Amino acid sequence: MKTQTTKINQKETLGKVLTYIRPHGFLLILTIVMALLSVLLTLYLPILTGDAVDIIAEFVTGEADNSFLWGEIRHILAAMAVIIAATAATQWIMNICNNKIVYNITQDVRKKAFRKIEALPLKYLDVHSHGDIVSRVVADVDQFADGLLIGFTQLFTGVVTILGTLIFMLSVDIKITAVVVIITPVSLFVASFIAKKTFSMFKLQSETRGEQTALINEMIGNQKVVQAFNREDEVLKTFEEINERLEKCSLRAIFFSSLTNPCTRFVNSLVYMGVGLTGAFSVLGGGLSVGQLTVFLSYANQYTKPFNEISGVITELQNALACADRIFELIDEKVVEADEADAVELKDIEGRVKLENVAFSYVPEKKLIENLNLQVNPGQRIAIVGPTGCGKTTIINLLMRFYDVNKGSISVDGKDIRDITRKSLRGSYGMVLQDTWLKRGTVKDNIVVGKPDATEEEVIAAAKASHAHSFIKRLPDGYNTVIGEDGGSLSGGQKQLLCITRVMLSLPPMLILDEATSSIDTRTEIKIQQAFAAMMEGRTSFIVAHRLSTIKSADVILVMKDGNIIEQGNHVQLLEKGGFYAQLYNSQFAVT
To answer: What is the residue range of 173's domain?
Structure first.
């Protein structure tokens, strides 16, 4: 059953590879033509060599004089020089075509894979290792390209050489050719047997490599935590365990694949021996000349050589197909459902948001939010508080439609968000999260993400409003300072200030602040809260906070527990009620 599944996977993967090759049909045809010419020219050389041997034999036996000998030899050498130059030219053109085909395909595959990552639902990225995804797009595509390049370079020439050699040999002697053909299937059987074994091994190797990449990626991103908790030894043990598995599956794959060459070489030696013995008896019987036997022996070498190359190609192709299978698994993943054909764009937004009987859970068997109802009027500031895991951030994910509700509906200005284009919905919110995201580039590049056409004056004004201007001016090149991936050497607070500046600049009609000031010192936080207050004026705003001091001025505070709103009101009302909110607040501001 497993072998049958492997065969199906190989066929499906090969079919997908061919769809990427199809657009490069002209280059493929040119490659085949150049391969054919190269092989024909290569096969014609032994004939000239055989003619030279026969001429020398005639001279030795006295059938030809010295002037005839050197005259004919000169002609043959000149013809050989032309053929060798032409062969080199055809192989050069063929290699250029091969490289262009392979690297165009590699570019297409990577582009499609990256676009797929951009279109994947968040739930896929939540449950799959980021390092493994990176390994598929980078390492697996490289392995796929290497195998494909060798395949194009050697497979065409190998097949054409075998066919061409057989035709030339048949034109010289049918009996000796028959000996070659009879022994050939043994080599094909050996190569086929090994190929079947290696596909699953190379796929396991690729998967384990992805697992190792994931661990390395995870450790690099969390090295401070690893060192803080003295987990270096445990991480090293985990790495060594994966490394040992990678070593074992790599050795198994390489061992089986390396059997191909010596096995086919053994069969090739049998072919050469058969041609030599049969040809020698034929020469003694007068059926062949010495020159013709030389031609046959040369053809025997040329005929068997491609079997070694093709067996190596098969091994590389198994590795390439195994890597391609993992790439296509990613490319074939279901993307986020497209917007409805009649989806509308949000315009002239008032900011009226309504949640009706909303139910949602990340895992079906583990309920999170049930029967949630909420009415938000334009310009209201809604604070969401509650213990960890109660569903605060989940509501944000649902409002932004990163996830769709399982039941019920969410509407903006009376329109169900499933009937609104995602682009216009998300563009209507300005979002600052606890987890900062900064790309490699200048400080200004990171600020203008939401408003690429912003002027320098607008950028500086936004930075001053967020209290980021002072630290930006202290950077080596100010707003043109290049920062590394995820903010480079900037502090957590500085990164968050840049993210706040980004929202200050774009000023969308609605705001989402999810622990937006968690990494900022208290003094700066007070100033930013004042800036937020001005920014939120007239804008519907959702504020998620653990520090309850930051949401006292909210119009409505939603107190959540176990996915449900258990209390609702403003700060004073909830304190007077003396319920769960009052307990949370007093736990933070208890007087001792």
So the answer is: 14-331
